[in-house]
């Protein structure tokens, strides 16, 4: 068997919780991948310019980052976490339903900002709850969790594709655009820099002939079972006021811990109350004075976040600019062929996360991280060496996606293992990863604009090497932190 009986038993015991967290991440994937393919049709719907519609991307990504950062405040109790997940997943369905009604680009940007906030909250809370649920076995289930993002991101464009306009969806009197040109603009718009699209003049007025509304309404219906699943979990845990049973199942975790502390002051607080009572980074110091906390404690947070800043930055910049790189010199690939590269990249990430599920059980997260980070550097180096090979660009794209796929869940499991599953590191890591994806896209976009398309791979190589170096520094801080804990434990025994 790929998994032993203990893991299977744990999964069965937490089946409904686990499936619910996986489903909300599927919802996350649906939302994050639907905007890119439909952006030109949304431009027609709002009758805006190419430059104006790119602000919709920015509003979603920026608010996703904010949602990831503030999501940690909902982790104190399971009630807060599930309530936030229910509201967030329901908001995504509502957003899908009302996007076709947005005929102004500013209104559309606000709506997508709300979706971004909901996605950020989902990202943080689902990761935290799975880590709390499985602790030392969380790596396996985190890999599966992130697989569902990729699954949602693959399903979403497939549903949208039949409803996308092949030609310009605003029928003006003096402009007629070929299908190939529209295909090129659609793929270029997925990157955060639209300055190179100023040469294209698309009509601002005319009859709107897009059918993209049906895609969003279908996605709203597909996503609707997700908030229902969260609601059913809340009902099972007796968190719904109108559906509470006489003996609530979850007086257990939060309230029972407080009752125990109140009735018997000599008993130590329960493990669950210790984990769920932390509200900030400093409160994770377990009551120690701030000056007694070692530098390595904070170094683990910072370095773990920086590694994910770099690796998720590569994911963002590669998916955003691989098309632009492929159609430019020296590749000069056909637009339709180059458009497949991003799909190959995301398919590789999805398959890689699926394959990493059994690997996470067999090998420790630190070992997998070392292999993956090395693989990223080697793959990008080979892409640089064979920079004129169209075939190797597809092969390299696939392997790069495979190596990048499991870095985030492995780093999350590794860091939380070091810090004993208090949940504080998850907020830092999720926020750092989102920030890296946004910042690296913008920085690499500016570099490509100034230095040319060849700097695309060179930038990825530099970012990958920085991530690799930071990971080795993280290993050193881990060793230092373990020594501090050992010394502290020895002092405690002497005192006793």
Fold and architecture overview:
- The chain is mostly helical and 496 residues long.
- The chain folds into 2 domains: 12-240 and 272-277, MFS general substrate transporter like domains (Growth Hormone, Chain: A, Up-down Bundle); 282-496, MFS general substrate transporter like domains (Growth Hormone, Chain: A), CATH 1.20.1250.
- The protein is built from 19 helices and 2 strands.
- It has helices at residues 5-13, 15-46, 50-70, 78-98, 105-134, 138-160, 179-188, 212-223, 225-236, 255-263, 271-276, 295-327, 335-338, 340-362, 365-385, 390-405, 407-418, 424-451, 455-495, and strands spanning 170-171, 207-208.
- Strands 1-2 form a two-stranded antiparallel ribbon.
- Helix 2 (15-46) crosses helix 7, helix 3 (50-70) packs parallel to helix 5 and helix 3 packs antiparallel against helix 18.
- The longest helix has 41 residues, at 455-495.
- The model is unreliable at 246-282 and 492-496 (pLDDT under 50).
